[in-house]
Amino acid sequence: MTMGFSDLPLARRDLSILPAAAAAATAVGATHAAPARSVPPATTLPGRRRLVDDGGIAALDLELDTLPATTRRAGGRLRTPVIEADRFRMVGVTWRGGRGRVWARWRRTSGGWTGWRELPPLSHGPDRRGPERGRRGAATDLTWTGPSDAVQLELTGAARAPVLTLLELRRLPGDRRADERLSAPRRNGGGTLPKPGAVPMPRMLFRKAWGPNPAWRNGSPSYNRRIRQLHVHHTVNGNDYRRADVPAMIRAMYRYHTKNLGWSDIGYNFLVDRFGRLWVGRAGGPRKAVRGAHTLGFNHASVGVAVIGSYETTEPPRAVIRALVRIASWKLDLYDGRPRARIRIRSGGSDRFREGRRVRLPTIDGHRDTNQTACPGARLYAALPAVRRRTARRIRKFRRRQASLRTG
Length: 408
Description:
Elements: H1 19-27, E1 52-53, E2 57-63, E3 71-72, E4 78-79, E5 83-108, E6 117-118, E7 138-139, E8 143-169, E9 229-234, H2 246-260, E10 270-272, E11 278-280, E12 302-307, H3 318-334, E13 342-346, E14 358-362, E15 364-366, H4 378-382, H5 384-407
Parallel strand pairs: 9-12, 9-15, 10-12
Antiparallel strand pairs: 1-2, 2-8, 3-4, 4-8, 5-6, 5-7, 5-8, 10-11, 13-14
Helix pairs in contact: 3-5
């Protein structure tokens, strides 16, 4: 099966720990340099590992400590042999224990190995004192490789029992017929619906459109008292995917977040594809203040929206900006949010702000404002001032219209 993705190299900035995060890693002893760019021929693990279909996603979870020819070096550095596998497009590593760093290289099906690259550390997740606090493991973020068929890893730091996850996209029969009809949010318990706002609910695709496997869920949705912020992310995928590819991409994230990280659901409340379509991510009712696992330390009063793609060097399409404005204006209007304001909010503890610190942040911000990450990419981050202005204008427009209808 041929998917419509390009074999794009990942943005360098998204594959590097930012200076403050690197300093934190050094503080716990993860001082190893990257593997040498020129690597002697490596032992290849016998036999090709097979990815198995798992609810519309081809997946492989491999315990690295159990592999023959895996070596441990001074300081706990672990080097795997070359692992050949069926074709995959995404890679992630999870482990138990403290902070670690993961380097990887992979062989593209088009031919040739990449250089060694550091996989970005996971900088989003459940708040440490929230309902999912026991479900946050140490991990890398899910990283896009493009079509590849072999990988080799090197881990440093305090990682124990590391597990490599390889994912390839598969389509379900309904992926080409995504349901775009609006329907009332399901009343599945919990969460108080806010007063009706002036801004209409935007057109969006509900969960059934991307086909989540309900067996992967870990518990019921939890809810915030209100929404004070909207955090913008990107997912660091290729940018030329087709419409029919999007459900499988969301399923891959859902699978990693639930089965590998142990979260209750996909971390993002909403997702936006490059065509400007809005997708409901986490369950619990799109109108409600569902608590996500998208911005470590700041989920307790916010909603998280992830743009599917990589926007470090690519300009976000106008359709993406329009979708962000529509979801932000609708969601913030429900809770009397001010899109152009800066608010003070208490950190629940992130890799940038200690627990309990009151931080002054924009109502609509980027992931990098709260965590040590390059997300949502330089170009999308630069577009956020325009998103704030347009969101405020849209809220004013509909509130005036509502007021004129009442007085007329």
